[in-house]
Structure to design on (356 residues):
């Protein structure tokens, strides 16, 4: 049986190529066409199923070499089927020849990039190759389409370690433009790509403490000379449940330096409010904190930022959450009225009168 397994594997993969070529020829399609042919797709999945969940692989190197050879020769839709099957076929084993082929696909075949990255996230990758792949994926973030973004970001965050989390965070901050992503329309699943990204980012920051610590450290080191980023404010909101005091101090510092301006908070909440809907309570808490301590609100910048957050939250909120905003303000106004609090409260009352 051990002698037969490599021969059977070769036969199955050769049959896969022959069947794919036959289908494409009969349909007069190019071997490079990425359009799925239903019959071909079903046949390739059926053949690949025979290689999944093998308890013992007699010759792993031979299997990897044959898979790599098949990937190079197969049409795109069959390549996709092979790639998504690799974690089940290989387990966590990833021979170098197959790794190099997948890295090539990530960079050269845009239609297969997300499939390859998704498969690589489930396989064990050597340190040097993983760092190279992380840099490549970060570069792809800038030009990725809506449905590709969550896959790429999930790979980056899930493969970060305590040793390189800071570097990964810096790469993501440079590559992820939320202003551009917010313009992408909703996917077929109903959520915008930005909403999916923010939800995934929230989950990863809560799950991986070293990732949250690294992001806090990067934000602490950011200076007013750096271009203000919507992503930084979003991350502050997401980190607040995990590191409230640190985030509050960090936010005050950046407001005081001018890096987080009132207009930036307004833009963040107004233009990205749908993606942040799961953090409404944290955003409201941030506005409350800036309003709560009179000694810290003497700065006009902090007062303006607090006002901007309250007004923006009120504008994007549904009727129930608008009541939450009003209740929060009533509590603060009753505890010690100062001029900008009165102006803010009256502004919200005016908004409530003109917005049903």
């Amino acid at each position: 049986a051990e002698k037969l397994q490599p021969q059977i594997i070769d036969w199955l993969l050769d049959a896969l190529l022959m069947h794919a070529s036959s289908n494409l020829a009969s349909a007069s399609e190019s071997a490079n066409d990425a359009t799925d042919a239903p019959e071909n797709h079903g046949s390739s999945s059926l053949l690949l199923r025979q290689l999944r969940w093998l308890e013992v692989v007699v010759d792993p190197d031979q299997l990897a070499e044959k898979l790599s050879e098949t990937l190079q020769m197969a049409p795109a839709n069959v390549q996709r089927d092979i790639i998504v099957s690799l974690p089940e076929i290989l387990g966590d084993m990833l021979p170098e020849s197959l790794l190099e082929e997948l890295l090539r696909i990530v960079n050269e075949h845009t239609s297969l990039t997300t499939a390859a990255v998704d498969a690589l996230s489930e396989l064990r990758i050597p340190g040097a190759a993983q760092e190279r792949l992380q840099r490549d994926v970060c570069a792809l973030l800038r030009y990725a389409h809506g449905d590709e973004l969550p896959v790429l970001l999930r790979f980056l965050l899930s493969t970060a370690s305590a040793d390189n989390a800071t570097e990964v965070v810096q790469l993501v901050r440079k590559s992820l433009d939320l202003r551009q992503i917010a313009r992408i329309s909703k996917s077929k699943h109903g959520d915008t790509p930005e909403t999916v990204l923010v939800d995934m980012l929230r989950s990863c920051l809560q799950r991986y403490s070293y990732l949250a610590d690294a992001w806090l450290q990067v934000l602490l080191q950011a200076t007013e000379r750096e271009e203000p980023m919507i992503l930084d404010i979003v991350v502050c909101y997401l980190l607040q449940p995990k590191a409230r005091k640190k985030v509050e101090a960090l936010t005050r510092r950046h407001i005081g330096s001018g890096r987080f301006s009132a207009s930036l908070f307004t833009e963040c909440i107004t233009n990205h409010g749908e993606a942040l809907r799961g953090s409404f309570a944290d955003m409201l808490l941030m506005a409350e904190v800036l309003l709560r301590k009179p000694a810290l609100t003497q700065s006009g910048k902090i007062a303006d930022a607090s006002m901007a957050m309250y007004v923006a939250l009120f504008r994007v909120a549904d009727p129930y959450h608008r009541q939450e905003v009003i209740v929060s303000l009533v509590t603060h106004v009753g505890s010690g009225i100062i001029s900008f609090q009165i102006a803010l409260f009256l502004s919200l009352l005016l908004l409530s009168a003109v917005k049903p």
